[in-house]
Amino acid sequence: MRFFLRRLGFYLITFWAAVTINFFIPRIMPGDPVSALIAKNQGRISPDAADALRTLFGLDENMSLWDQYVQYWNLLLHGELGTSFAYSAPVADVIAGAIPWTIGLVGIATIISFTLGTLLGSGIGWRRGTWADSLLPISTFFSAVPYFWLALIAISIFSVTLGWFPASGSYDRSLVPSFSWEFISSVIYYGTLPALTIVISSISGWILGMRNMMVTVSSEDYVTVAQAKGVSERTALFGYSARNAILPQVSSFALSLGFIVGGTLVMEIVFSYQGIGYYLFTAVAAKDYPLMQGIFLVITVAVLFANIVADFIYGVLDPRTRQEG
């Protein structure tokens, strides 16, 4: 229990540091975001609204930096992240509308690549030296291919040449979002090509990681003793070798789940997919500081939460991590 309490305390301090850094980001950036917004929207936003915009963004010059910091925490505790300049809507609403798309696409693709990569890596590592090792150079090649290049190739082949999948978008815009099968099938149809791009690009890392760990673990004494006792090959593979080799994979998987909230930025831009990564790109292009600040905060919280889950899972799977040195 002390192990979990110590880890929880550490992450609470980390969360405070992340929120504090996020508070100072728009205040240390060169220029004035409000002035930049007014200059970009000349004729639509009056310069007289500068003071009101600064107050809305938490940059009131009449308030001390400490008072602004306290006000920022107060807004966060009430679930308020400010108002997006680009979308003229609360930042929390913009992020809430984008997160399900990113989690649905990148999350499912990450789970598929992790599952397939771990199973393939276990088999290749267990039967090392066979023809299965010839798959490693192929997977390594795809892992070295940049996301955007692979996405463009996929669009060129499957969308332009073959016409099997749409080149952009997240669903058929003629449909009204609902839980009907027509809309769900449209989402699956539009998300297949981006998901396939993510799986092909990331599966090799899971294969190589699990394969190398299996090579190390399968030569341990307890695996040799289990085989000498006459246990089945399946039990030796999954009950002894893979069970211990998967521990680093679990930690990496939990961390990758945290980065899902951030989305695959380049992939969402190439496919014009309305996830967090796409909104972050539009926020940077439009100098939408409140939206950028809100997205950075959500990504940070997601990664910290994933770290907590990884530590707890690792502590449960490997009791040695909970013992004093």
TrEMBL record:
- Which residues are in coiled coils? none
Q: Which family does it belong to?
A: Belongs to the binding-protein-dependent transport system permease family.
The main location class comes to membrane
**Transport in keyword set:** yes
CDD domains per the record?
A: TM_PBP2
- The entry's protein name is Peptide ABC transporter permease
Q: Name one Pfam family in it.
A: BPD_transp_1
InterPro entries attached here? Answer: MetI-like, MetI-like_sf
Which SUPFAM superfamilies does the UniProt entry name for this protein?
MetI-like
Instruction: Name the membrane topology term.
Output: Multi-pass membrane protein
GO BP annotations, alphabetical order:
transmembrane transport
Q: Which UniProt keywords apply?
A: Membrane, Transmembrane, Transmembrane helix, Transport
Mark the transmembrane ranges.
7-25, 98-126, 147-167, 187-208, 253-274, 294-317
Q: Where in the cell is it found?
A: Cell membrane; Membrane
Cellular component terms per the entry's GO annotation? plasma membrane
Entry's PROSITE patterns? ABC_TM1
**Domain ABC transmembrane type-1 intervals:** 99-310
